Structure formats: structure tokens, C-alpha cells
Amino acid sequence: MLTVSTVNVNGLRAAAKKGFVEWLAATGSDVVCMQETRAEPDQLPAAVRSPEGWHTQLAPSADKGRSGVAIYSRREPDEVRVGFGSAEFDESGRYVEATFGDVVVASLYLPSGDVGTPRQDEKERFMKEFLVHLTDLRARAEAAGKQALVCGDWNIAHREIDLKNWKGNQKSAGFLPEERAWLTQVFDEVGYVDVVRRLHPEGPGPYSWWSYRGKAFDNDSGWRIDYLAATPALAERCTDAFVERAPSYDKRWSDHAPVTAVFDF
């Protein structure tokens, strides 16, 4: 069995004070992918930077205090790669991958964007480059007899069933027609499989992000923007996939919830 979780921690130092450490100690996952860590390794307490029983790969952003991705694993990776060969984005703390035997696991933090601003332009540039990488990653992995799993905060709700208020968000970053079409390319053309949706084809949700504003969490007015995208042969081995939604608002340690998938080998 291989169990993998992904979660945007919304600041690893803050999450560690609100329940992340306890969650990590209790999880049955073999690999945990994190996004938006927003911390340099030397800013983290030892219990978070190097927790007992875990190998940690931290890829902070050169722009300190922003972004940042990480992979924690129970076994030491055979190989680690930070970035995907992008002159613009490799030092932005948005991608790290680790190889464990025949499986390459990646942690992705795709830019969130903001319509009508340079942030949306940045998101579009990232998406264009990253689609090339996804195509290459699958080809390289399969040529070597391996499979790939790209986990993370993709910052796009793919379909209407992936967010509660889809009608009111059709002109919002994260649900723009061109963003959704790009994600369709990832799944339908490049051939990655959304393992949660494969096992749970009907909506709504399950959502993985809820705004801290208002009663979004209590009303389950969320978005499903955190995905585990697997190459086809690996997706076939996925026997369970679920969102670890907090039992109540005050038990949350991030505005995202961990999304976990189990693969049978």
C-alpha cells in the first residue's frame, strides 16, 4: 500500500501551532505533500522541520514569506528535484518532486491568479510551461517503467460540481473558462487522472478549501481545488480517496483540508 496526502498548510509555522503537528503524528500516510509553507527551514522548530520518523524535502521561495512547497516521507527518496526547468518559476517555491522506487510524487502550488492583474498573467504563464512539464513527466516516467502523481493546490475548480457557488464565480480566478479548459487538457489530452473524482464521480465536492470569511465552512460553501493527478496505471491502483475535513470550524489548522489517496500495490 502507498498512502499519499496533500494539503495547503496556509503557513507551516502557523499550522504547526494550530494542529498540524498532531495531525502529522496521527496520519497513516507514507508521503505528505504540502503547499504554501511560507517558511525557510531555519525558521521552523525542529519538531516541524525534521519530525521523528520523516524525511523532509523543503523548497522555499526565493521571495521569502511567500509560496513554498514540501514533501515529507517515511522513506528517504531515491531522488529529489526542485522546480521543473523553468527560468521564471524554479525558485518560486511552487514545485518539488521526489522519486520512491517506481513512483514519482510531486508537490505543486499553482499560482492563484487575480483577474485583470499581473497575477493572472503570471498564472497563465505558469500553466503554459507546466503543461509541457506534465507531458514530459508522464513520458519520462513511463519510459523508465515508473508512474507519476502530481499532488497539490491547483487553484482551479474544474467543473460546476467542484464549487458550491459556481454561478457567482464564472468570472473569478480559479473558475475561468480558460483555466477550466486547461485542466481539461491535463486530464483528457495529457492523460492524468483525478483520483478523487474517479472514485467519486458525482458531486457536489468533496470540497477541500473554504474561505475563512463568513460561514463558508459551516455551510460547506467550498471549492475543490486540491487534486492528486495520477498517470493512468497508478490511478487504476487507487482504492480509496477522501478529504479529511475538520469536524468543526475551531478544529481547522488551515483553510484547506488534507486530501488523501490510498494505492494498492
UniProtKB/TrEMBL annotation:
Q: Where is this site: Transition state stabilizer?
A: N155
Q: Enumerate the Gene Ontology biological process terms.
A: DNA repair
Entry binding sites for Mg(2+): N8, E36, D153, N155, D255, H256
Which PROSITE patterns does the record cross-reference, listed alphabetically?
AP_NUCLEASE_F1_4
Enzyme Commission identifier(s): 4.2.99.18
Has keyword Manganese?
yes
Q: Name one GO molecular function term.
A: metal ion binding
User: Any note on cofactor binding?
Assistant: Probably binds two magnesium or manganese ions per subunit.
The family database entries (Gene3D superfamilies) matched by this protein are listed as: Endonuclease/exonuclease/phosphatase (3.60.10.10)
> What is this enzyme's class at the first EC digit?
lyase
**Cofactors required:** Mg(2+); Mn(2+)
Write down the InterPro entries for this protein, in alphabetical order: AP_endonuc_1 (IPR004808), Endo/exonu/phosph_ase_sf (IPR036691), Endo/exonuclease/phosphatase (IPR005135), ExoIII-like (IPR037493)
Alphabetically sorted, this entry's keywords are: Endonuclease, Hydrolase, Lyase, Magnesium, Manganese, Metal-binding, Nuclease
Q: Where is this site: Important for catalytic activity?
A: D226
Keyword Magnesium, does the record have it? Answer: yes
Site Interaction with DNA substrate: which residues? H256
Query: Which Pfam families did the record assign?
Result: Exo_endo_phos
Which residues are annotated as active site? Answer: Y109, D153, H256
The family classification in the record reads:
Belongs to the DNA repair enzymes AP/ExoA family.
Name the record gives this protein: AP endonuclease, family 1:exodeoxyribonuclease III xth
Identify the taxonomic lineage of the organism of origin: Bacteria, Bacillati, Actinomycetota, Actinomycetes, Pseudonocardiales
